[in-house]
Amino acid sequence: xxxxxxxxxxxxxxxxxxxxxxxxxxxxxxxxxxxxxxxxxxxxxxxxxxxxxxxxxxxxxxxxxxxxxxxxxxxxxxxxxxxxxxxxxxxxxxxxxxxxxxxxxxxxxxxxxxxxxxxxxxxxxxxxxxxxxxxxxxxxxxxxxxxxxxxxxxxxxxxxxxxxxxxxxxxxxxxxxxxxxxxxxxxxxxxxxxxxxxxxxxxxxxxxxxxxxxxxxxxxxxxxxxxxxxxxxxxxxxxxxxxxxxxxxxxxxxxxxxxxxxxxxxxxxxxxxxxxxxxxxxxxxxxxxxxxxxxxxxxxxxxxxxxxxxxxxxxxxx
Length: 318
Prior knowledge:
Number of domains: 2
Shape: globular
CATH class of the largest domain: Alpha Beta
Order of helices and strands: EEEHEEEEHEHEHEEHEHEHHEHE
Largest sheet: 7 strands, mixed
């Protein structure tokens, strides 16, 4: 089979579509013939040499796929060869085939195309686990997501709105602001011209920036507010005002999905199937896809992601 290999840490040019050993389904796993994968910031960090796959995971990038089941490993029930699925991965999605723990599989939602379904697992699992399971966002609360035009942002806006929250986001362009408002954001704050703190306080904030926004995020939290940090695009180290947290009885959570134990991932996937998939099948929430490129053009997809001009997900078709 073929897969995208990272020859060495570096710029997008180090990604190479080449022949690799065939993947096979082990006990408790399912072998999926990949229709599409999606590009995530974590893939870029891995390509640069800053985000190694967890022990035992595939060395190839790609944290989510869609496709058809090609084989079932020992002990797997509830699935059949030929089923159309999408899945959350610890790695290996940029390939023709990938072996996946059965607990991380999801059916392709009714009304969603097989290729576009590749853009759902990572964002749906990230948003559900952080905003709703850990962050406890409730109807009537105010929610802020940074990077509203991203894959995570476009899903977070839709889900928060669907569950009755008041939704705001930050964006970098007028085009992204307009699209985010169409998806349900009450206000899209252009961070190049305005300060999101002015429109708080926020009960839950989903943050991909880390250090750069930490002080302002804490400043803008409501009493009992929850800050969920899922990315470090703005750096890893900053000063935290604990007194501000104490006064507000607020919390800061920093989480990641990739290295969690299999049982934790399976529980998140099951919750997403229960709570998010019905919204997709009703059309209340939908995958937002910016564009789809051939898998062999992964380097170009990475360049596009790093330029940050996209809205929603960039997909790689098998």
